[in-house]
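Support reply, case 0932

Customer input (verbatim):
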Amino acid sequence: MSDVIRIMLADDHLVVRTGLRLMLAADESFTLVGEATNGVMAIELAEKLQPDVILMDLRMPEMDGIEAIKQICKRWPQIAVVILTTYNEDNLMIRALQAGACGYLLKDCTLDTLLSTLRRASQGEMLLPPEIMARILAHASQAIAPPPVARSSLDLTEREREVLAGVAQGERSKEIAARLGISERTVGTYLGSIFSKLGVDSRASAVAVAIKRGLLPRLDR
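Our regenerated output:
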């Protein structure tokens, strides 16, 4: 990936797209490569433009953002998708994570938060503010228990749970490594094992599955 981060927008509101376009234009580390007004168009442009990061609204005509995320993440897993929405709903956050989104932002977030999230998403990080993750965990703890799964998929080691907890709190691999006193490469090894045991292929999916199965501790922030 080049130094300039290639961004695509998917939002059916012209005013929102215009505002985002102006904000991105003010920072030379980003370039806007395309804009979609619905989920179908988002998939078409993702295939054509291959952006580094897509800022995706959830509620759009023809095809909603969540279905578009599922298809984009399945076909082009190298493209990071960050949700940017006005809807502050726990269920939508969980569904967006399960679909493959690597971050979830509300449209009233600060510009610094938005740009920082885009940068980290382009580097393959999962980005969920602790307060949002705490709400997701609280919501998940009240949900109906999921169907039984093979015991082997739940046998995470203590260290794997520590790594997964760090991911859930938005820590980068280097931050997890520093906290646990291990190398970043070792963190990657643990993540690979976690993905295999949970049957997932991304940090976002690992956290979503762990939330549903009660494998993560409740956050008290």
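We compared this against your earlier run and they match. Two observations from our side: DSSP finds ten helices and five strands in the chain. Confidence is low (pLDDT under 50) at residues 143-153. Please reopen the case if you see a mismatch on your end.
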